[in-house]
Amino acid sequence: MSILNEVITFNKSFVEEKRYEPYITSKYPDKHFVILTCMDTRLVELLPKAMNLRNGDVKIIKSAGATLNHPFGGIMRSLLVAIYELQADEVFVIGHYDCGMSAVNPDKMLQKMIDRGITQDTLDLLTYSGVDLKQWLHGFEDVQENVQHSVEMIKNHPLVLDSIPVHGLVIDPKTGKLDIIVDGSKI
């Protein structure tokens, strides 16, 4: 059975048995903040539990490494929607220790792409078109510096008001302990 079939089979009973009812909430975050965090599987349940969050409390945006690469990309747009359309009054950027993005090797990833069927011609075309694939795929060396960089990009964005606190934290994916890197209420 494919993963899709497993999901759809489970979903059918989930809906029929009304197991969704405990999760009913509005689209507006009850705690009025938005989180930008990593897509790491260890954080799916750990991060909300470590922050005492329940369904409906916050908006959560995920990206590899909790990294904001471009001030006018999809992640920043999502943060702005959370602030201006969905009543988020604070932003939390939460990275984590032992992040896979700190170990990403662009050369190895490009080779994995080729091994799975991306042609060298496609990579050459992107390079010829001005895309620096190695830079684009590069991770980071220090999670705290990466969080601070994302916080600064958000805080200095021309469409983010100075009155919006932007906090930076790093979570331990084993224990859930949060370390404050930037306290946005003190800036």
Description:
The chain is 37% helix and 16% strand. With 187 residues, the protein is of the alpha/beta class. A five-stranded mixed β-sheet has the order 2-1-3-4-5, sandwiched between helices. Helix 2 (43-50) links the parallel strand 1 and strand 2 (59-63). The longest helix is centred in the N-terminal third of the chain and has 14 residues, at 3-16. The protein is globular. The model has no long low-confidence stretch (mean pLDDT 95).
Question: Strands, helices and their partners?
Answer:
Elements: H1 3-16, E1 33-38, H2 43-50, E2 59-63, H3 74-84, E3 90-96, H4 106-115, H5 120-128, H6 133-137, H7 143-155, E4 166-171, E5 178-182
Parallel strand pairs: 1-2, 1-3, 3-4
Antiparallel strand pairs: 4-5
Summarize the structure.
The protein is an alpha/beta fold. It has seven helices and five strands.
- The level of helicity is 25-40%
Largest sheet, order of strands side by side? 2-1-3-4-5
Largest sheet: 5 strands, mixed
Fourth-tier CATH superfamily name of the largest domain: Carbonic anhydrase
Radius of gyration: 19 Å
**DSSP summary, beta strand count:** 5
Percent range for β-strand residues: 15-25%
Shape descriptor = globular
Overall tally of structural domains: 2
Uncertain spans: none
Number of helices: 7
**Can you name the CATH architecture of the largest domain?**
3-Layer(aba) Sandwich
Mean pLDDT: 95
**N- to C-terminal distance:** 53 Å
CATH topology of the largest domain: Beta-carbonic Anhydrase, Chain A
